[in-house]
Amino acid sequence: MSSDRARPPAEFSSEAVETAEALGRNLLILEKCAADPDPEVLNSVFRQAHSLKGLAATFGQKRLAELAHAAEDLLDRFRLGKARVTPARLDLLLEAVELFQRLAEEPGSAVDEAQALAARLSSMDEGPERMGEDPLERLELAPQMRRVLTEFEEHRLRETLRRGELVWAARVEYPLETFDRELEQLKARLRGVGELVSTLPGPVGDRLDVLSFVLLVGSGAGEPGLRFAFGGVPVDLRPVPVRKERRAGAETEGAGRLEGAESGTVARTLRVDIARLDALMDDVGELRLIGEAIRGLSDARELSPRAWTAELLREHRRLVRRLDILQDRLLQARMVPLRLLFDRMQRLVRRMAREAGKEVVLETSGAEVQIDKRLVEELSDPLVHLVRNAIDHGIEPAGLREGRGKARAGRILLSAEQLGARVVLALTDDGGGVDWARVREVAIQRGLLDEERARAAGDRELQAVLFSPGFSTASAVSPMSGRGVGLDVVKTNIAGLSGVIDVESRPGEGTTFRVTLPVTLATVRGLLVGVSGRVYAVPLSSVLDVLAHDGEGTMENGRRVLSVRGRSISVVSLAETFGLPRRTEGGVYLVVVGVAERRLGLVVDALHGQRDLVTQALGPRLGQVPGISGAAEVGHHHTVLVLDVGALLDEVLRGPPLLVAEA
Amino acid sequence: MSPGTSAVHELLARFRYRPEEEFDALVDLPTSSVEPDRPVGAEEIQLLTFSLREGEYAVALDTVTEILRARPLTEIPRARPPLLGVLNLRGTITPVYDPSLRLQLAGSAPLCAGPDCERPPRPARILVVRTALGPAGLWVDRVRGVQRVRPGALERPSSGPTGGVVGILQTAEATCTVVDPEWLLR
Amino acid sequence: MGYKVLIVEDSTASREFIAATIEQIEGAEVVCAGSGFDALKLLPRFRFDLIITDINMPDINGLELINFVKMNPNYRETPLIIVTGEGRQHDRERGIQLGASEFLIKPLQPDHLAQLVRRYLNLA
Q1: 3-state secondary structure of A56
Q2: Using a CB-CB distance cutoff of 8 angstroms, which residues of chain C are in contact with residue B163?
Q3: How far off is chain B from C59, nearest CA to CA, in Å?
Q4: Which chains border A (3 or more CB–CB pairs < 8 Å)?
Q5: Complex ipTM, two decimals?
Q6: Which of A25, A152, A478, A586 is 20 to 30 Å from A120 by CA-CA measure?
């Protein structure tokens, strides 16, 4: 038991994760040819599950081995033609792939789920409808009804269908005071003609005194019989249609998993090119030589003090240079292609689209772009949020799309591009775009903007509203999905990576979210500035200009403005923004920062040079500190804060932050 | 211990309370146990006791991962109390808080971040505790020591905020309020 | 302060246990519902800061309750915590998908429950 919970050795994790990923990709290929599966692919997936099982068994990873075994069995039946490749089974297998990756890293995690999934995989295998399929799949229940059924209720519905009876949906309204008594009576009467399987309460407009109920009743009686059971109560009664043939996008069991479970499956281990490791060994060799040289210096009594010092300095320079190269190489070793992330998004989109009852296709480009491994982990969560956003709120239902002259299936494009020291990730959907009018309304409703400002607000300002904590896109666009998507959380996550996020929307055509990130998380080149005796780091990638500041500038719209190289930019004192005491004498400097088209001049007291900084995020406890994206260590025990240029731009150009540093 | 206490009193006092040396350097708690010869009893819990202003407090020892000498912190601009600043703890940015606010104690937090901060007093320490949201530091005036108690030895608090108080420990010398660090850190 | 917590649970023992645990929290008041129906009646009567609900209940199951709360503009901001027995993973997942914030598995640890509740009431 304890070996099961202990961290497995790195070689195991690495290989297990890679095999699982390959299996996942092949399963997606298999899906495309499910009707007539390619025997090569069938063999590959079987072999991959088989080797995963063996690998797990060898390292004593019992749970993973069990799950792999269950998957292998099912895949074997596919291979031998004993079972059909169905969406339901593929869903389970893909779920298994996710769990493989998690279990490879943390054997103690996902205990319940692994067992349950293995059981489901096995039972999928031998169920009575082995060659048939789940009748519930063909029942055309509205997604919202489907989602609230417990396992037991699903089972009752299946029984109803198996008996050859119909499932009826009846909508009634009752007053709040008496609904329970009325429903009890109704239930009693319905017992005579069928089975009341589920009762779904819903509001009636925003009235508090009346409730609506949608009842699912399984019955073999005809409509007159049912209506009679309802007595004189006005009821909207109709049978739930059952499809004759299977449809590709049908609801399936095995759907639905914690979203949080998806992220965090990126491995903490790395497969590194041997050539890279060899180069690193060379570097170490060089460092040893320098070490020898320094030791030699300690014996060099014949040198004059001056010469000795010169030698020492020379060795020091060599040392620093070697260390720089070593650091660079190590950073390079941490870079992985975005493909891993994109593959996972493929699987996610499949499932989310099905859950939302929509048809969506994900295209990717730039999967070969490399970013720091840690960045990939940290990006996972915000990307999942954005994808969910696009599917739930962006892309319209197929029917509506056709009506608008669009292709039935919505298209999401996930692209990555490397621009110098930055990587730009874009998520574009061809849905309905953001309803800015509604955003305005909600902003007013939630007190994020007052009426006047809301009306005058341009796109940029409304963007800020979209990303603010008080705002939930769910309430703005769809009353159904109760979960707010939390774009503010996405923004915080991205800021924690020293990145910025932007949104662009074309009404009726679609929305694009653009995330700009520095290429390595580990090191950011920063300009150290002094403000009132404190030192802050400004990411060099956002610094456009540095000048001595002499002019006072002019005031425009309540903001100080200066002309810099012929361009008028807003200027703000960091001391003022951060509430620090102002220095009274001495010259000042202006550091001009910018992202995309926006520009801001930061007034600082001193410049302390440029440095390569190893940055860390501030951590979940500190949450969002406005204007700060992280911290870096400079010198011995001296930590400086790294400025969040995007947030400062927001704050100064659009108004005060909605949050201040939470304690 | 005051001289001249009766033998019985001494015995009782020793049973309930053992004073501990002050920690001088970075201490890794799990290895520096007070009584290495006597294993911790089955139901005993170990408490780390400390002073804050005029009061004595304690937290469960297993929530504390380190005790550090108090040192100047990195200031967070526009931070609100009880956040005092942050520490870079071997690569992890750890926020440090002043627990006296939560405990509604008189006096204001020492200025311990930024260029104007004073040298922290010698006995002051930072307790690094493990919480659901990651590590966090508590700035205390002095660490007293480690004490073992049986759960029954703690009394229910009679008055005052009951939110995070796990119990009251009466020792030979003082009344010590045992608190839940998660509650202290909101 | 008067934070109000609604507990929806058809098993009397569980319900009493949860209520007793939460009542220990300073500032928290508890309102109990023995069924989904009762919960529906209680919702408009108080302004709840947190709802704790079981899933498997006879008339309205917990999922339907969560759905009702989240669909309703009057209540949708209220956080929901699910409490279920061990094997009910499918139900738990559905619950989270519908908008519940957390789940707890029986048997419940009083400290864990209290800590969680405190967090959602923004206390402690």
Answers
A1: helix
A2: 25-27, 118, 123-124
A3: 37
A4: B, C
A5: 0.83
A6: A25
